[in-house]
Amino acid sequence: MPLPPLSCPVFPQLCGAAHSHPVDVSDMSTRDEPFSDRFDVSGVTADGAAWLASAGTYPRSTLSLWEEHPAAPVVLPCGTAFDVVSVPAIFGRRMLDRLWDEGPGSGPVATLRGRMLLFAAPGTAQRLPFLLRWEEFGRTAEIPPLLCHGTGDAVTVPAPLSAAKSGLTSRWLVAPDTRHPWLPGPEILVWAAVRAARAAVRISIFPPADQDAKVYDVSRRR
Question: What is the pLDDT at residue 134?
Fold first, then answer.
C-alpha cells in the first residue's frame, strides 16, 4: 500500500523546508569535516523522508519517529529502495565533483564518521565490485576500497533535520527531496571513481585555487 502524502500539519518540520534549497555550510559547525569548505547541504523534504522510510519494513513507524524526533538518525536496510556505496571522505568529494561537473549529477549523498555515503540504484552493490576489479587491471590503482552495501545490509541514515551544533557525525550533503530520486548505477560510479583517481594526481601537484563552498544544482539531475 503506498504511503499517503505528507502534509504540513502531519510533518511540519519537513514541510517547512524549501525544495532543494541549499544551506551554506559556512554557517554550520562543520570545521572538523575535510570537505565542509566546499559542499552545501540540501534539506530533506517530506517526499524525501517518505522515500527513505519506504526502504524499511515499517515505513509508517519510521515516519512517526521522525515526526516526534526529526533530528534522530535511523538504520535502514539496503537493496530495495537504494544501495549505498561508502567512500573515504576526500576521495568521495572528488567523485562528487566529477559527477556534478562532468556527469549527470548524483543521488542523495550523506556523510558518516569520515566517510561519504553515495546512494545508488538497487543492484549497484552486487555489480560495482566486479567493474572495479576489471578497472584495476588497467590504470586505476589509485582508487581506494569502496564499501558496497546492498541486499542484506543496512546503513545509518542521517536525520531529516540535522542539528548543526549537536556534534553528530552524520549529515546530508545532497538530501533526498522526492519520492522517486534519480540514483546512479554501477557504471556511472565507476566512471566517477576513475576520473576522481586521475584528479587526485593533478590535485596533489596543483591545489585548487577556489576553496569556497560549492553548490550542486539538483535540477540538473537526469
Answer: 82
Q: How far is CA 204 from the centre of its chain?
A: 25
Rg of the Cα trace of the chain?
A: 17
Kindly provide the b/e burial profile for residues 129-148, where b requires at least 16 CB atoms within 10 angstroms of the residue's own CB.
eebbeebeeeebeebeebeb
* One-letter amino acid for residue 1 of the chain: M
pLDDT of residue 69: 92
CB 96 within 8 A of CB 108: no
What pLDDT, on the 0 to 100 scale, is given for residue 43? 78
**Mean pLDDT of the region 104-131:** 96
Q: Indicate yes or no: pTM above 0.85.
A: no
Q: Quote the CA–CA distance of 148 and 126 in Å, as a whole number.
A: 8
One DSSP character per residue, 5-74 reads PPPTTTSHHHHTSPTT-EE-GGGSS-TTSTTTTTB-EEPP-HHHHHHHHTTSS-HHHHHHHHHH-TT--E
Q: What is the pLDDT of residue 142?
A: 80
Largest CA distance in the chain: 55
Q: What pLDDT does 68 receive?
A: 94
Residue 138 is predicted with a pLDDT of 55
**The sheet that has 109-112: what strands, in order across it?**
147-149, 83-88, 115-120, 109-112, 170-174
In sequence order, the 6+-apart residues with CB closer than 8 A to the CB of 82 are 55, 107, 108, 119, 120, 121, 122, 183
CA geometry: angle 120, 123, 125, nearest 5 deg: 70
